[in-house]
Amino acid sequence: MDDRELIGRVLAGDPRAERELYEAHVDRVFRLSCRMAGDPHRAQDYTQETFIRAFRRLGDFRGESALSTWLCAIAVSVTLNGIRAQRRARDREVGLDDAPAIGSRSIEADPDLKTRMAHAIDELPDGYRTVFVMHDVEGYTHQEIASALGVQPGTSKAQLFRARAKLRTALADFARD
Amino acid sequence: MLLDDRRHDDGQDDDRDDLPDEPLEPSLLAAAREYHRPPEPPREAMWRAIQAERRRARAVRPARRRWVAWAAAAAAVLAVGVGIGWMSRTALPHNGGASTASWGPPGASPRINETAYRMATVEHLGQSEAFLTLFRASVQSAGQERLASGTARQLLATNRLLLDSPAAADRRTRLLLEDLELVLAEIAQLAADDRPDDRTLIREGLDRGGVLSRLRTEVPAGSTPTRGDL
Which residues pair with B7 in a beta bridge? Predict the structure, then answer.
């Protein structure tokens, strides 16, 4: 069944169609949200919010992109807003005396590649990290990323290029292996 | 837009399409794919939460539409009242010693004025009766209380206008408007001062003063078209 037919059934009030739409996309939305948020519980909240918004605004979906891309755009927006809100709340809670400890993890204390890579990805600017996670980690195309983020595919490609360069620099010792 | 920082701290233009696509080395890529590796999605739990939220939203939406309709109707009654008030004030003698019988534009029949007031009063009482019936039956959450208090404030404004007009010359109508004012004022306070017992007290007050039954007596059947929506 194509997107248009499924959407038509959802808008007509068919509860089975709602469930079909959810089942078809929930894994992808949850995975992306979890990758970006780094916390499965928050990812669960963001995924729920994504589908609640999607069902509410489904009548506005014009079919200019695939339904999966449209859902992805909502998921990215919901997740990034959630991450920013969480960051603001954390910044309020952390006193100045504690601030230097954040982000200065000791590389020597944690030489494992996966951990070093996770830290390096965390250190990327938001834009780089989002594109890198979507493309290299979750396998989205530049076209999908561009549609979801509202940018040109060239911007997505450039962001990915720079993200990889930063990661290579941060993990230079491992890259040589 | 998310990626609006096309020129970054390092001064690089970030909107270029001609950069080479050099994939990460396999070991780095494998490590990257472990980044925040998601567990199995809790599909059922999320679906239940989504459905619960959608049911809640559907339950609130019709009620919201009804409150908005009442607010619009109350505003219309208020406009009628203001119009009556304006007509009446233009006709007031400058010595301020007017009796209710002397209100009205020069040459206007007192009978026409009485009819206009009675129509506005009946309309207002009908709206109030429908609003209080709805309030009594359905206000259960703080969100709805805020909507109810907004409508109550609108009705309260109309109520006070009518209390200050010849419409209150009739003793029974005046007493009803005075009792109604107390109830509407209490509901109008709900959002600002949200105590759990307030709704119970208001409902008990409605029952004790018989405001609803008196309203129903005053309002001729079918005089408020929107009542059928309840």
Answer: B13
